[in-house]
Records
---
Amino acid sequence: MTWAVILPLAGALLSVLLARHAARIALGTVLATLAVDAALARAVALGGPIEHQVGGWPPPLGIRLVADGPAVLFLLLAGVVYLASTAYAARFFDRPNGARSGSPVGPGRFESAVGPASSASAVGRAGAIPHVPATRTSPRTPAGFWPVWLFLLAALDGLFLTSDLFNMYVALELLTLAGVALVAMTHDRAGTQAAIRYLLVAMVASLFFLLGISLLYAEFGVLDLEGLGEAIAPGRITAVAIPLVLLGLAVKLAIFPFHFWLPPAYGATLTPVCAVLSALAIKGPFFVLIRLVPGPFAAVIPPAIGTLIGGLALGGIVWGSLRALQQPRLKLLIAYSSVAQVGYLFLALSLALADPTGPALRGGIFFALSHGLAKAAMFLAAGAIIRSFGHDRIADLRAPQRGSHLATTALALAAVGLMGFPASGGFIGKWLIGEAAALAGRPLALAGIVGGGLLAALYLFRVLRQAFVAPDPAAGVVRAPAALEWPAFLLAVLSVLLGVASAPVLGLLP
Amino acid sequence: MTPETLYATLGALLFGIGLYGAIVRRLVLRKLIAVNVMISGVFLTFIAPGGRGEGPPDPVAQAIVLTGIVVTLGGTALGLALIRRAHAIRHGPGPSGRNPADGAPGDRGGFG
């Protein structure tokens, strides 16, 4: 079980030593990790949860690792998304596509240019001579990209397996540091500023989480989740500690109104980084929440907090969708869509608090898995389309299939999953959450789920309709490399298949 | 007031001072320092109950704070590196390739 953490760590170190082969090392490491995840998932599916005490030390001094159903599902999600994104990133960097203008400025030229600065460039406008803009060429691999890339996977895997509160804090911090470093890999102004903001917000959020943990530890003297569940009791300290923990996680999860750091960070950074951050990094704090809230905290959370969480969730669904509707740029639209989707996760938590035995938690986890696949597919497909058009202004992405049939199809399939069309993974997640809302008698939550799906259809059709308009003959469109299309397409297919073949997945959930 | 409550109160106070600074200060460097003040507050609340009773102090709390210091060091170093880079992007590197120590607040100079 520890191999799921050790392999990416070892791969990261190896890719520092053998920097020339870093991309191949990363791909091999991710493949091996996915194999470990799959073996673990099989063992858990057949024999139930598996426990491991690191170094043979029992709690309270040692740290317990637990692989149960949700843990192995999230491990598999991380492995699959990482495999696709790593294959994508290996092609994303460093190879010319058409004319390669040497990039003296450094690695950041590529999609960092898809920021406000490039809006003035008249790429593809009628009359202008279509030149090959900077966004068409592959950027150089940023220094240190592959080690940090693998560190992020190690942090995720560690987080999914740990059963110790402080260990969760450490894994969350590693996740943040790796994520911030990856956002900063654009080496430009927007990326650096977004990374600084991301870092400061995430550090403050971590401290709220840690202060809450320190209070719980001072009161009950345990950090292991199982031990805490037995020891925890209502009281003044608990009443202060639990909101602190939840607040810290909510900020890290970018729930409305704490989402302000997320869109700039995703909008400014490189496409493969967007994919893993949106699909996986925000699932880290969510995973901690599903460990804590229906677990040790269930008995002591006041109902008012559940209602508050539900209110914020609805606010996030509405606000994120409305903002996504207004975005002129594809990457920002997808980023705001994440703000809306996080709302569903919180809605599931709020309903799980109201009725711990209901289907809400299963629905939330299933939705998180399907969202991870669909959102990663969407970012990767967007990256391929951006590569072929040289910009990401939605209004000018006319007939994106000219650049890439597969990526456009992937975008549509992933959109199906995000909207929650029947038979897709998103549908089953939303159905379970909706069922919980109906059982708990929460018409507002039910309306939010349905309305959010409609809003998602509205903002996603803004992009998809572009496939049916006449192409702009003056727009110089380059075919996207196949190695950028296929990972997006396969992930999108998986996100739909998750709905068709949901039985084994649901079988692993509580 | 027992030493335990004293330390816990001090920890909460430091956390509050740091949080205030992290929100109110405009220079990111000061925000980063404020976050470090918050962290000291958290560590104090972790350590404070560790010394209660007559026995040896709680080793788990100490191990946690040591780990926390390492994590914080990493985060602060990353923050400083990013702030330096943001500064270099805005003002260009200094003559020796180093940045001037301080940037004027509100300076909106262009690249290089």
---
Amino acid sequence: MKTEHEEALSALLDGESVEPPVLAAALADPGAAATLLAFARVRAMITADDGHPDPVLRPRDVSALDPAPGRRAWLRPLRVAVPAALVGAAAVAVVVFVGQHGGVPVGPPPGPDTAGPPAPDVVVRFMLDRETRGGL
Amino acid sequence: MPGPDAHALFAELSGPVFRYLLRMTGAPARAEELTQDTFVRIVRALPDYEARGRDRAWVFGIARNVLLNERRRGARKPAPAEIDDARIEGTRADASERVALIQALASLTEADRDVFLLRELGGLDYAEIASLAAMSPAAVRNRLYRARVQLRRALRPAVVDEQESNP
């Protein structure tokens, strides 16, 4: 079968416009029916291919697809499938980071302070009245 | 004209988009990630999208860009010949036919496979494919014809009736 004829039949199958004289010649070709049928079978095989997304990809609540007002959509992924071990490791990392940078003591206590105590802001003096209280 | 709804787009097109990405990458896990990225981008872009009755072309355009961006970033080579046996279910005849189909698709050039899948799975017309793939409609027509002839040859026992081909 002529290349031009096969190409015309391929376009016909796709619903695209084909020059009538070219189409007439293509359909008159003895192999036209077999070619059309083969193309149609290829299409049927492709469309019957049931490769499908993993069910976990499908959100149980499709409202997850709606970006809530004031929130960014990328903060609301369609699927959350983070292993528990990863979550645990991340939690430990956060605790350690906050401990080191957020004032919560983590790890061994600091060594002896050689710089001395800070200067007091307020000094409170307790005066004992030995006479009225009778002394110590 | 009201814009498309994210729910409806996902329900209608997540399957075809996944299959397009699966057949372009050959890797189910990557295809799932890319499908997810595609729909996250769609949700983000929806407010600015002017519905023009070409939702499929718009969605597949985004999916294609996601795929191309991922390849540029990671410089990953496509692996269309990868076959995940766990996904090939059904009867033995179905499975062997499916393996043959995957291998036949893998035998196409990437550009031909892209055009073919946009047509067959995306349902895009020649003008839409030409716009996405930056080529002329005539080139799309020629690539589709070439892909079909090659697939017919590769899938000969399944798609060609010898009596029909030799009347």
